[in-house]
Specification:
The structure holds 2 protein chains of 2 kinds. Chain A is α/β, with parallel strands linked by helices. Chain A has helices at residues 2-31, 35-42, 67-80, 93-101, 116-120, 163-175, 187-195, 206-213, 243-262, 269-272, 278-284, 289-294, 300-308, 311-318; strands at residues 45-49, 57-58, 64-65, 86-90, 107-113, 124-126, 131-133, 135-140, 155-159, 180-184, 201-205, 222-224, 232-239. Chain B is an alpha+beta fold. Classes of the chains: A alpha/beta, B alpha+beta.
Amino acid sequence: MQRNSIGSRFFTKAFAVTAALTAALIASSALAGETLDKIKARGLIKVGVGTTPGYFTPDSSGRWQGFFVDFGRALAVTVFNDAEKVEFTNSSPQQRLPALQSGEFDILLSGVTQTVTRAFKLGFHFGPVVFYDGQGLLVRKDLGVAKGEELDGATIGVQSGTTGELNIADFFRKTGKAFTPVTIEETGEFLKALDSGRVDALTQDATDLAAKRTQLSKPDDYVLLPERLSKEPLAPAIRAGDDQWLEIVNWTVYATIQAEEFGITQKNVDSFLTSEDPGIKRFLGVDPSLGEAIGLDPKFAYNIVKAVGNYGEIFDRNVGKGTPLNFDRGYNQPWTAGGLLYSPPFR
Amino acid sequence: MPSRLSTWLGPLPFGQIFLFAGVLAIFALFGSNTVDSMQRTGLSPGFGFLFHQANFEIGETVLPYSAGDTYARALAAGLANTIKVAIVGCVLATVLGVALGIARLSGNLLLATFVHTYVELLRNTPLLLQLFLWSAIIHALPPPRGAYVFLESVYLSNRGVHVPSVSLQGLSWAIWLPAILLTAYASLSLARRLLTGSTFYIPKAAMTVLGSLVVCYLALTSFGLAATIDLPAKGGFNIKGGLSLTPEFFALLIGLVVNASASISDIVRSGIQSVKSGQWEAARALGLKPAQIMRLVVLPQALRVITPLMISSFLDLTKNSSLAVAIGYPDIVSVANTTANTTGQALEAICIIAAVYLTLSLSVSALMNLYNRRIVLRGEARR
């Protein structure tokens, strides 16, 4: 009997402690404020990325480099005026959305396709599209295939959690042909499936496939079909319901696009400070009225261009001509040059 | 005699009630917190999504499924895949494990040391690593065009194993199910007669098997049915025809079987060692041969120790099959993950996975307990 009552007293105490801890935990998560407050308190922006050379990859010293990584740095400049106050973490396509939802990341810059399901049903907001892509097929050359339709009966590797998984099923249903998917979560295994010949083709965003092709053991044995199966507008994704954070993301991206339209680059940005063009004056914060209105450093656009450059520079440096990926600008150039990049006015 | 309620409340009734209320409160808090945060992000909890269209394909299914069917059907197809690998895995792991367990106890030092090393190696490395290894080995096989061919009918390539299959035309469940059950029962009873050594019944049992085969044959022919053998052959991108085991299924199956066989062999060894040496000596004194001693005297007694432990090995294997997701076999976890990703109902998907494994595990242990009750010593069951 005695032992029993000691037991229950112990449990009551242990329980009280647990209850107090749990209450504290729940209170802290419920009271935590908007994304920006959390970022400022932490002194760091947490960004979810993937691993594809050119887009996001750590260099030999462990520093993250790439197209999407540069937009993460631009954000850090907007918030902290310091391109280093940002932390990049690799997250598989399968895990990235729940990770963002649960607050592990402040933003996903991992090439997420903007879709209506993700906006309404999954509860995500998207910033401006930073890369216009389309789904492609990477196939072995010796198959002699020129079009997606000719892949009737083929085994195709898809990465789980991507729009590609859904698009390829739609494509084959539409064409009335059959295929066997091999659904793989992990990016390394996905690539190995093609390398080892387990699958006849991989399907994924075309530019991503072009980058992955360079990682295969014999890149020249494979060809990226010219056909595009879908529209893949890749945009920064954030949790729905935080308008302030969304606007910060929006205008950070627009600043890089607008800078290119103005012809302002990392090198010549200082020379524009003396420009008499009122638009450029507002943009660079020489006229501080705009920055005050949005509650940011009035010179945030200047800081971004100074630290990471304009959109064109970010593109060229990571994926453009002269890089291993050697991409054309295609749709990804300012509307003034025939592309789809269009920033609302800084006014 | 205190009432049930007062026993339950214990010597500190208020403490007990407080504790109970506290636990309830914690769960209520978690629940409301979850619902709150789901609402904040615009998600509506519920299982209505199960009846929406699932727009993804599943690589291999036992149940017929294609993109455009409901999520419920997709999940059922994933579940069937899990059950398939679990059942085949448990059977093969048992066979391999028993053989290894007996081998480890053999007088042959080389054999015993080999099994010992095998067991230690497998029990002390992570299963996930082993699965990656098997997956890599199978992927290293030649492509379909250069496949290894055995007897002109079995193809081994990096697309998996292709074996001939028998397809029956115009056959209904009503005929083949009873026929198969009859044959299975007859073969089982024959196997049992052979195992227990009661030679007297063997001819009779053999007759039953033969009889049921004849019934099957008659059923096939008299109903105007035809059986054709489908041989696999190279064609198009792949090997076509026949029955195929995908590399993912094959890698998962080998990984699970080999891993579970290590622990099962240890269970079998301990079971055999638990049989008192007097039993061996008595059997030897009766003039039984070593194989007969094992089969007729030792194993039946060892089974009483082995069976309860085997239950947990089977449960481990079933639950470990969820690692399939890492090597691309579309099991229930893989399908539920994709479902969560396309519908946003992550919490519901996790609940479904949990419910599935709970149900599977409880049914496996219920079945095994039923069997255990049959083999325990009379009188022990009631203890």
